[in-house]
Amino acid sequence: MLFDTCALLWVTLDPDSLTEEERNIALSDFEAGEAAVSSISFWEVGAKIKKNRIDIGMPLEEYIHKIHLFGGFEIIPVDEMIWMENIRLNWDHRDPADRTIVATAGLRGIPILTKDMTIRAYYPNQGWL
Q: Where do the DSSP E strands lie in the chain?
């Protein structure tokens, strides 16, 4: 299961904001060793911090360090294959992070854990109910 950026933030910073069902989905992926996050999510968090759209209560570097310590996530680097898939997507959506997350999930053949209705409408293999 590939966590989109919002799912990553909720699970790691505000798990109480999730419903019991959502927490159970996320925990089952951790326990099964099947939780993943695209490295573009860290770029997206940093961009939102820089624009004062979010406050995660710590510097980005510290947050990324905590993600590594938290464990349970495979961090998928954005490589040339993912960028090529991003460009090939037949999706009129300009958000580079969303496009990259969808491209990553598509190449891996895995669902995306998201509440984002734009992603859900395009990529039907999602995990959030």
A: 2-3, 35-38, 73-76, 112-113
pLDDT digits (tens, 9 = 90+) for 13-68: 988 888 887 777 777 777 667 889 999 999 999 999 999 999 999 999 999 999 88
Task: For residue 82, give Cα distances in angstroms to 25, 29, 85, 105, 106.
Answer: 26, 22, 5, 9, 9
- CA 19 to mean position of chain CA atoms: 18
Structure tokens at 78: 């954005």
Phi/psi for 69 (5° steps) reads -70, -35
Q: Closest by alpha carbon to 38, among 16, 5, 87? A: 5
* pTM to 2 decimal places: 0.89
Residue-range domains of the chain with CATH: 2-122 (3.40.50.1010)
* Contact present, 37 and 4 (Cβ < 8 Å): no
